[in-house]
Each structure stands twice: as C-alpha cells, then as structure tokens.
Amino acid sequence: MELCQLTIHELQDKIRSGDTSPSAVLQSVFNRIDRLEADLNSYISVFRQEAFELAAIQDEQVRRGEIAPLTGIPIALKDILCTKGWKTTCGSRILDNFIPPYDATAVDKLRAAGAIFSGKTNMDEFGMGSSTETSFFGVTRNPWNLSRIPGGSSGGSAAAVAAAQCIASIGTDTGGSIRQPAALNGVVGLKPTYGRVSRYGMIAFASSLDQIGPITRDVEDCAIMMNVLAGHDAKDSTSAPREAPDYLSFLGKDITGWTIGIPKEYFIDGIDQEVLATVDRAVATLEKIGARCVEVSLPHTPYCVSVYYIIAPAEASSNLARYDGVRFGYRSAKTPDLVSLYKNSRSEGFGNEVKRRIMIGTYALSSGYYDAYYKKASQVRRLISDDLTHAFKSCDALLTPTTPTPAFGIGEKTADPIQMYLTDIFTITPNLAGIPAISVPAGYSREGLPIGIQFLTPAFEEGRLLQLAQAYEKAAAVGKMTPPGV
Amino acid sequence: MKITKEEVAHVAHLARLEFREEEVENFTLQLNRILEYIDKLNELDTSGVEPMSHPFALGNAFREDMVTASVTEENPLANAPAPRGQFFSVPRVIE
C-alpha cells in the first residue's frame, strides 16, 4: 500500500510517530493525480503549489509536536464550496471565472483542523445530475471501469477517494449526491442531518434539501471528518443550534439487540439481482452480530421521485435567479438591452439539465400551477416524512440498497431525463425528511463494480448511524479491493 | 399534452431563458414526460395534510448586531463582468 491509499487514521498514526511526513503523503497523492487524472478527470482544479507550501510548513509543525486532527491529510473539495481566492465553478460555464471573496465555513473548519486541500473536484452542474455528465468541464470516469459513470453529483469527490487522488473529500447531497457516488465508487459517504453542517459558502441548489458531508475510505474516517465539520454556525440561519457530540465515541461498540427495519417498498422491479443479493448478505451479517432485521413499510416511497422533482427544481429556479450576468459570473457578449443581457447570459452560461430544472421549477411555481405542483409535493413530502417517524418508533435504524444498480455506462441515460432521475430512487427520502443517511461498501458485482448499502437513522443520530455502519463494516469484511490500475 | 410550446416559451421568458425553435420543441416534449411522471402524486388524497416546506420547524435565527469583518468594496467588483469605477454596469434601462 502506498501512502495515498491509507485512511486518515492510519496516516495520523504514521505522521504522529514520525514514520512519514505531510510532504511525503502529499507527494504520494500528487503522483497518483499525475498518473490518473488524464483518464479520470476527477478534478476541476488542483492546488499543487499551495498544497506543497502548506505541507512544508506542517512538516516543521509536526517536528515541534503541533498536530491538529487533519494535519497532513490531503482533502479534495467539491467545486460547490467557496474557496477564497480560488476559482469555484460549481461545474458551470456561468461560474467559470468566479473567484469567491470568502471561504465556506466547512472550508474554514477543515483548514483550521490542518487539512491540506489538494483541489476542487468535478461535479454535475450546480449538483443537478446523477452521473457527473452534466459538468461543463467534461465527465469524470469511474476508476473501477473507465466506461462507467462515477455517479453524481459529487462524482469527482467519490472517484478521487477511490482512485487515491486524495485521502478523503467533501461532497454535497440534495437527493443522494454524496451516497450514490460513494456507493458506485466503493467508498463511504455520509449525508448528515439537515442543519448539522453549516452551508455558509456552499453554492445553493435546493435550500430545504442540501447538506454537506464527507466521503471517506472507512467509517472511522467519516467520524473524524464529522468531528471537524459538525456544529452550529451563526452565518447559516438553517444551522442547528445544538452541540455536536464526539462521533468517534460511538465507534467500536456493538449493536446487539438493535432492530433494523428493511422497507419492503424499496424492492422494486428493475432492481439489479446482484444488488438484491448484496442486501441479503448484509441482513445475514447484521443478524450474525446480534441485530434483528424486520420488514417495515414506508408506503409513500413510490412518490419520492415525483416530490423531489418538483421541490428541488422549484427551489433551484429561485436560487439560480441570481446568475444574471450583472455582478459576477458569465456575461454574454450580446447585450443590446437589459432583458437580453439576462437571457443571453443565462442561456449561454447554463447547460441543458440546469435549464430543464429551472423550467420545471418556474412552471411549478407559476401562477395557476402552484397548488397543483409545489403545494401538492410539499404535502406528500409530509407523508413521506411521517412514514419514517412511524418506522423509527419500532426500529433503531433502517437498511436499504443505496442504488438500484452498480455504475451504469457513460451516455447510457443522458437522452432520457426520467431514467436518470430514477437512479436516485433510494436516496431521496432522507433529504426530504432531513434525516442522516450513510452509504457503506457492501460488495462487488461479477464485473467488479462496487455495490453499496445505505443506513438511515432519525434526525441528529449520526452517532448511532456511524456505530451501526462501523459494526457492519467490521463484520462484513467486504475486503479492500482497489480499482484496476490504482 | 400538459404543457404546450407556447407555455414553454412563456415559462422560458419568466425564467429569463431563451431557446431556439428546435430547443423549444425538445423541451416541450421532455417537460411533458416529466410532468406526466409527476402526475403520479394525484393518486394520493392530501386534503388536510399540512405542507412541509422544511425538514424541521426552525425559528428565526437572530444574532447580536455586531460589526465583524466583511467583504471590502474591491472584493465583489473583482468578479464583475463589466465594472465601471465602483459600480456594476448594465445596458441603459431608461430611455
């Protein structure tokens, strides 16, 4: 194993003991970036010079015994998080030249914890997509099979972790954008509770759904990252004003006697047989370590995609109104009058999927249609959330597949928006209800593609979620395969 | 058809987007398919269900009115596509 393939906690030990140094770890990561980036396109930009300068400073700090939780750990940031002085594009032409005047709170916190930022990762434009194919900067390829998509929208963040182009990364999740790519790349991805991690400086897609979270190689790393990221922030009015626990304190404990609910509505037609077999194996593993798995019902599950594809575009159509070519971002050369300036800048600056969602959202909110679409969807959202509240009365957590299939082919679903939207079918519910959910690697398909399973717990129970995920991870011992060529 | 080409053109104007003729046709087709899929929601009787606009009921988030570091005048203008002096410039709006 090379340094770039280790976990945060393994590297922490090696750095503390003087076995390695921040510069050596970074060199290993950049060797990997240099070797694989032409094939993968995980990154939109890399911060080579800045990263090596910081690593050299940290080499000295480590010698003096000054070690923070993430000292010497190369972390990649999804290009949706504002980085002061560093280009932040959100995967869009409209922000191709945008250099934020401030850092996102998550970026501030990681920096304060000693993280070294390797760069900004590729993503579906404004987070709108499930395959990273809508990025203005080209598709990211799945390191497990270059003809497959890496998932999305945080496809670059997940591929970079799987391909050892960073040690851990940050993603954002509006309907599955952390968990789905994590599953398809064989890594761990956590979407925290709505309000658990500050979104200040995160470019907004759908404000009642968006959350920032970590993508890591194992569950312990996920807890380490959550200890840095979680907490109240006065700069985000939707940030939860409650103390974050020490997530590491939940790890290593058993789950004997826990009841895990398996929602029967998730086992739909069209779900891949190998995914089904993986869930069955996970159930057996959990029972072997003392959990009781029971069937539960979330009767409104079949409506989640419809609800999501009204609410998310409605909120997006409002959030993306700010891109008008006036104060920042792309401005068209054709500006005979103000309305043309707006229309041409937006039409040339946004890609097709973003336009499609702005159109759906604008239509759903427009005069005469609001009750039929937005209000109706918000009501069904309540029913979906109530289903979960009811299920958690008898269960400590829920288990579902993360995705209906392993990674699909590049170009396979781009022609049909509905087919693409249906790939999010298992990951949308936690966003609608605001609860946390984690995807952990659970096996591989015959073709050698990773398959993930997802756990859900009630709001602000990330500790319970991590405890369960780690107990499963240890018991399942899925085996660390690495992508071919990595 | 749930939405016509004319309506698509109207919504595009509301959203300050412009489409070529063939794009309008394609969007009309796709939006109709999406809206038909979404129609599934009408299977459910939601009368009396309180709409859920946010995951949790959040109160207003007040903070002390203290002066803290903020962006400077140069910062926001640094990203302006067409700054003029201390201002953002746009085409003339008053004849």
Sequence-ordered SSE layout with sheet pairings:
The complex is a heterodimer of chains A (486) and B (95).
Chain A: H1 8-16, H2 22-40, E1 43-46, H3 48-63, E2 74-78, H4 105-112, E3 116-121, H5 155-162, E4 168-173, H6 179-185, E5 188-191, E6 211-216, H7 219-229, E7 259-263, H8 273-288, E8 292-296, H9 304-319, H10 338-349, H11 352-365, H12 371-391, E9 397-401, H13 417-422, H14 428-433, E10 437-444, E11 450-456, H15 462-476
Chain B: H1 5-14, H2 21-38, H3 74-78, E1 83-84, E2 87-88
Antiparallel strand pairs in B: 1-2
Could you list some keywords that capture this structure?
heterodimer, A: 486 residues, alpha/beta, 11-stranded mixed beta sheet, 15 helices, 13% strand, B: 95 residues, mainly alpha, two-stranded antiparallel sheet, 3 helices, 2 strands, 4% strand
Strand order of the largest sheet of chain B: 1-2
Shape of chain B: flat
Strand content of chain B: under 5%
The number of strands of chain B is: 2
The largest β sheet of chain B comes out as: 2 strands, antiparallel
Quaternary structure state of the chains depicted: heterodimer
Order of helices and strands of chain A: HHEHEHEHEHEEHEHEHHHHEHHEEH
Poorly predicted runs of chain B are none
How far apart are the first and last residues' alpha carbons of chain B, in Å? 41 Å
Order of helices and strands of chain B: HHHEE
State the share of residues found in helices of chain B, binned by percent: 25-40%
Q: Kindly report how far apart the N and C termini of chain A lie.
A: 10 Å
Structural class of chain B: mainly alpha
Main interface pair? A-B, 72 and 50 residues
The neighbouring-strand order within the major sheet of chain A is: 1-3-2-4-6-5-10-11-9-7-8
Which range does the strand content of chain A fall in?
5-15%
